[in-house]
Design a protein that fits this description.
The chain is built from four helices and 23 strands. The chain starts with a helix and ends with a strand. By secondary structure, the chain is mainly β.
């Protein structure tokens, strides 16, 4: 009796289980079907027919090579078993050569210019290395060249040489060093660098130079109290080779004798990314102090617009205050830069962008060895080519507003084509930046010839209006800049 009553219950349980199994089966796609004969090409096609890409190898590789597969020989434990040696020396870089015709500030020059960038990298462990960077066939920002038109009218070859290192620094991690020396796994990471090292902040806008000093970073931190899931803080200082383009800046006496102290932070917060920093330059000659502040916020809005808004401010002691009232405050400046790109129907390859700026006073980067201004990343019309003296619009942002509107197309991620129009409109003649309205029209094209060679071409036409009356521009009351160039680049 009890058995007969149990049987229907068991059957009902089995039926319910079958229904659940069927629901689970419906929730997933069928398992892949494999042919009897293995098809290697078919398996590659599953991943878009992707194959291994062998990049150009460095000019010289000794010891353990970079980005190669094992098996490797057993590593030395000279610095401890928890920080094994992985020694390797590599020399790599690129060689750039360009032919250009530039009409810049009423000076026409046709030339072929070349530069060689050499990185010398000595890996010690996975986290420690010594790195040097050389530019042997240039002198500061003057490059070896052959002028065959314009200029003094005669064909002229000029060779430039510089055997000094542009950077030479050691970098490592105190946590890894502690693990190796103590034999205990460190519970912290503390990367650091010391020497003549590159400082690159705010995409190079605020800082883009090599400074002689040191830096240390507190990486990948979080704070439950502040609701911060991830942030980094970097402290840096320099005691030589500090380049600042301000009127009273660190290179006022052309010897870069200044001290630099600063801190910067990178924070994931407010549904976006925050970057902020403070820098202090102390001129050793006069003891002047110049303060620099920056902040930026980057976020994507409604899956339609990507925006980065950047703020820059600087203010300094003014030794001219007691001598000339018209020079007072010439070191002070403030700038806002808004970088925007629309997310199109081809989000990875078709990128309309519009960048805008407004500047007051004399806004300056913290350091920049190229002497570039605060607007150098606003658009292609605001940047030179670091080779032929390609013309650019005024990039100081001094008492002016404007921006750049352009369209970038990357084809199948194998080429780049950029069209852009740009403007600088001063609202006060302060003798520092643009004196009159400027308008630029630029185009750029890049394509890799193969994995080692790259071709690039640029053209720009820039109207430097003689006055602020837009109507007079088309009546011929203006002068212009013009540049066209083609470059070949070899990476190794």
């Amino acid at each position: 009796m009890s058995c007969t009553t149990a049987e229907p219950a068991a059957a009902e349980s089995i039926n319910e289980g079958s229904k659940e199994d069927k629901l689970l089966q419906d929730a997933f796609r069928p398992d892949p079907q494999y042919d009897a004969n293995y098809n290697a090409q078919g398996q590659l096609d599953i991943y878009g027919a992707k194959i291994a890409v062998e990049p150009p190898r460095p000019l010289l590789e000794l010891g353990r090579e970079q980005y190669t597969s094992g098996l490797y020989d057993e590593s030395s434990a000279l610095l401890g078993k928890l920080n094994p040696l992985l020694p390797g020396l590599a020399i790599y870089g690129d060689w750039r050569t360009a032919v250009a015709y530039n009409s810049n500030n009423d000076k026409d020059i046709a030339q072929i210019a070349t530069r060689l960038n050499l990185d010398v990298d000595f890996k010690i462990t996975a986290t420690e290395r010594i790195h040097a960077f050389f530019t042997p066939i240039q002198n500061n920002n003057v490059y070896s060249r052959f002028e065959f038109g314009g200029g003094d009218g005669d064909d002229q070859f000029t060779a430039e040489f510089d055997r000094n290192a542009a950077t030479l620094f050691f970098e490592g991690d105190f946590g890894s060093l502690y693990s190796g020396f103590s034999g205990k796994q460190a519970r912290f990471d503390l990367p650091f660098t010391v020497g003549l090292f590159p400082l690159f902040l705010q995409n190079g806008i605020w800082a883009n130079d090599a400074i002689l000093g040191g830096a240390v970073t507190l990486p990948a931190r979080n704070s439950a109290a502040l609701g911060l899931a991830n942030f980094d803080i970097t402290f840096f200082a320099a005691f030589d080779n500090v380049n600042n383009a301000g009127i009273l800046g660190a290179n006022a006496d052309d010897n870069n004798k200044a001290n630099l102290y600063g801190v910067t932070a990178f924070v994931d917060a407010f549904n976006g990314f925050v970057e902020t920093g403070y820098g202090l330059i102390q001129d050793e000659q006069d003891g002047l102090l110049e303060h620099f502040l920056t902040a930026a916020y980057t976020r994507r809005y409604y899956n339609t617009l990507s925006n980065s808004t950047r703020l820059f401010a600087n203010f300094a002691d003014d030794p001219f205050a007691n001598f000339a009232d018209d020079l007072e405050g010439k070191n002070d400046g403030f700038a806002i830069i808004s970088e925007n790109s629309l997310i199109s129907g081809l989000p990875s390859t078709l990128i309309p962008y519009a960048n805008f700026f407004v500047g007051f006073g004399n806004p300056q980067p913290l350091v920049d060895g190229n002497g570039a201004g605060i607007l150098k990343n606003v658009g292609i019309n605001f940047e030179t080519d670091a080779l032929t003296g390609f013309p650019k619009l005024d990039d100081t942002g001094s008492n002016a507003f404007g921006g750049a509107i352009g369209l970038e197309y990357l084809f199948n991620l194998d080429q780049q084509l950029v069209f852009e129009v740009a403007m600088v409109q001063p609202f006060e003649d302060d003798g520092i930046g643009a004196q009159h309205a400027q308008y630029g029209f630029g185009v750029r094209y890049q394509i890799p010839i193969n994995l080692a060679w790259l071709f690039r071409a640029d053209a720009t036409y820039q109207i430097l209006a003689a006055n602020d009356d837009f109507g007079d521009i088309f009546e011929g009351n203006f002068k212009d800049n013009f540049g066209i160039r083609a470059e070949i680049r070899r990476k190794f």
